[in-house]
Each structure stands twice: as structure tokens, then as C-alpha cells.
Amino acid sequence: MLRQIKGLHHVTSLASSARENNAFFTNVLGLRRVKKTVNFDAPDVYHLYYGDEVGTPGTVMTYFPFSGAARGRRGTGEVGTTRFTIPVGSAQAWAERLGTFDIANVSVGTLFGTPVVGFDGPDGDRFALVEGEDDRAPWTGNGISEEMAIRGFHSADMRLREAGAQAELLRFMGYEEQDRDGALIRYAVPGGNAANVIDIEEAGNLAPAGQGAGSVHHIAFAVENRARQLEVREALLDTGYQVTPVIDRDYFWAIYFRTPGGVLFEVATNEPGFDRDEDTAHLGEALKLPSQHEHLRAALERHLEPIGQ
């Protein structure tokens, strides 16, 4: 069993509009845009990162906005809902706030006995806000008070055709079964970070998901540094997984592998962080390009959609 993985690092999804995506996460949810860069593998597309003040691992939602992309098809083999932690007692205030922005499919209920507000993102992406005790410092620079500001990720759920092999993988990664609520089985990393929960839903009667705008592209798990990442990579290879070489993503190092349930997993380092090329006061303001794409700057600045502050 692995002990290096601490919980979530980031979640990366697809969108159809950079401007709408930016407005939703900064204006509606009140997160900070901590990096404005490009998809390193397709540099004509943004890669936008939203999180707390410095983009602490376990707080960062990221997007590849492909202009005009068709919506994905929900089904099995994907991350179904991404959840954030909010302060205890703030669920109703969040439901009311989301209503003022005409956010789709807002619902208030409970999950594992805890108040939860569910809602859709601009492309039908499914999110939830979960009340909980959480001492992470929130970002309040976009006008949401500390009394209701998002603290970071709480968890994510995976909707699978068959849960057994995926559950076995999670246990190998250091997760332990914690609880059950209806069709959901909850796993957590003991002693992990504040985003150490994954839920699995077995939904074999659903058709496979089709990726598009609103789909999660991959889900990333946090390790402290490159040495721990190499240990994880070696263990996964020894277990039979096809794992990529380590890839430098400027703000972290990454490895990727496809899981038995069909979900793409990444293992990302907590180092070096989003302030490696910008000071904290100005994170996410300028277009930052990896060195291999710097020669494209003039063309990219003409091509990429303006997204505002």
C-alpha cells in the first residue's frame, strides 16, 4: 500500500468558453484565478487555474476551454461531481447566492449526514458545496465573506460501471473505506490533506460517458515532492499500470495513468507551486507560457479570447 499520496491536488475539466468559465469561478464562486497559461500540449487553448490565494494543492480547479466545444455526455467512467468545503451553517446562504446568478439545478440536501448544495456549472459540470470544519484560509479577494468563502476541495465522486477494481486501486493508493450513503461508497486517506475524500458510485446501468465541455478530463492526487512521486510511479508500474514518464508542467511535475474504471488519474507534486514565475500579489494576471511555447506569444495573444480580471 502506498503512503505517499495525501489526497487531491487538482481537478481538470473541459469548457466551451474561457470568458464564461472565468466569470463563473471568480465572480460566482469567489475563487482566485491563480494562473493564466495554455494547454502545454495544445497551446492555442488556455489552461486556467482557480483556487485559494496561492493555489494550494487541494484547492485548485483547472480548465481547458475549447471555444464552442459541444457538451459532454454524462455516464460511467468519469468523475461525476466535484465538491468544495464551505463553512458550517453557510449552505442556505450559498443556495440563495447561486439563485441570484441564475445557476442551473441548485438543490439543498444532505450527503453522509452533512448539508450540501448541489448545482451545475456553465457547461453542465456538476458541483457541490459541503459544510464542514476546515481551517484552510479562504480567498476573499473577489468579494465573498470569510463566513461563507470556499476553503478548497472536499471530495470528488466517480461514477463507474463496476466499482471493484477501482476500489482496489484506491486502497492501494492509501485510501480506506469510511462510510456508505445509498449508492456511494466513501474512501479517505488517513492523515491526508483537507481534500482526502473520494466517493465511488457503481452505476452499471448507465452508458459510458462521452467527453466534452463540462466533463472532467483528469483528477490529480498530491504527493509532497518528486522523490515521493517516483516511488509512486515505480509501485504503479510494478503493479501493471501503464504510467507516463514524469512531465514538467512548470508549477508541478506530473505522471498519468488510466484506471480500471476509465478515469484518467494524475499524480502531481506539491512543488514548486504557482508563485515560481509570478509574485503572490499578481498571480493569474499575465499570460504565462512555458519556455517551449514562448516563441508563440504574439500569435497566442491575438488568438486567445480576452477573459478580463
Automatic annotation (TrEMBL):
Single GO MF descriptor: dioxygenase activity
Q: What class of enzyme is it?
A: oxidoreductase
Q: Which UniProt keywords apply?
A: Dioxygenase, Oxidoreductase
Keyword Oxidoreductase carried by entry? yes
Q: What is its EC number?
A: 1.13.11.-
Domain VOC residues, every copy: 7-132, 152-270
Pfam families (UniProt xref): Glyoxalase
Q: Read off the Gene3D superfamilies from this record.
A: 2,3-Dihydroxybiphenyl 1,2-Dioxygenase, domain 1
User: Entry's InterPro entries?
Assistant: Extradiol_RC_dioxygenase, Glyas_Bleomycin-R_OHBP_Dase, Glyas_Fos-R_dOase_dom, VOC_core
Q: Does the keyword Oxidoreductase apply?
A: yes
From the Swiss-Prot or TrEMBL record, give the protein name.
Putative ring-cleaving dioxygenase MhqO
Organism name: Roseisalinus antarcticus
